[in-house]
Structures are given as structure tokens and as C-alpha cells.
UniProtKB/TrEMBL annotation:
Pfam families: GyrI-like. Residues 1-165 form the AraC effector-binding domain. This is GyrI-like domain-containing protein. It comes from Nonomuraea montanisoli. InterPro entries: AraC_E-bd (IPR010499), GyrI-like (IPR029442), Reg_factor_effector_dom_sf (IPR011256). SUPFAM superfamilies: Probable bacterial effector-binding domain.
Amino acid sequence: MPRIVEHPDRPYVGVLRTITMTTFGEVADRIPELIAWLGRQGVALAGAPFLRYRVIEMAADRLEVEAGVPIARPLDGSLAEEAGFFAAALPAGRYATVTHHGHPDRLAGVIGDLLAWAEKEGLTWDLAQRDGVERWGCRLELYETDPRVEPDPANWDTTLEFRLA
């Protein structure tokens, strides 16, 4: 069952790519690289790695997606830029959230259910829509399960967090 949570700003290091539905690997596959780089810098992780959907344009099969890793304290942006990443913060606010247990290819149904629940509850997303283009303030998929520990995607937990207006 979805619920609403309040979050403060959450610092992270990430990488942004414009992709299609078939080229997700160009951004998602950067997560291990981000984690390894943060480890070499001695930066403490502060939560599950995530994908952040900034722009969704389904008719054109175009998405702007970030891969990110939360960190305990803000990081000097120039250090991240030297490595080809950026340092930023997920915005504070109220988020509708739900956790999915199972293969990530089943997330579309969970997302649909979350969107329908919010509409039924009269909630408004931090979202601008125009001409079939969705620009999200903060729409996250957090990957709670480490695939090195649990290699079977059917046993993975993924938390959705969509920021409310």
C-alpha cells in the first residue's frame, strides 16, 4: 500500500543521460562505477542507488534519466566533475512511496497503481506536462537489493518515490 513520507534534501553523486527504452544500460550500468568511485574517495554511502526520471517523452521514446548514489554529506562538485559525474541533492519534500518485491520488469504495473492511487487520493505530483512531455521534479526508483548478494531479480526490492507538489 502506498504511503506518504517526508524527506529532507538528500545529497548524492550522479550521472545524467538521454536514453531510449532500449538503451537504459547507458545510465543504469553506471551505478557500480559510481559506487566504486565513491569508495575510492572514502565517501560514505547513505542509501540505495537509484534512477531519477527527469523527462519522459514516450511518443518519441526519449527519457532523461540520472543514475545516482546517495551520500552521507555533500561533496565538492569539482571532484565529481573531474570523474565525469556531478554532485547534487534530491529535493526535500513530501513523496508518495511504495516498495515492489519482484522482478524490475514488473515495475510498470506498480507505477500505474501508484499513479492511480494518488489520483484517487486527490494528490498532485511535482510534475509539468506539455505536448506529451513529462518533466518530473523528483521521480525515483531506488534499488534496495544488492545484486551481488541476491542475483535473482525475482527476489529484488525496488522502492518508488515520486515527489508531491
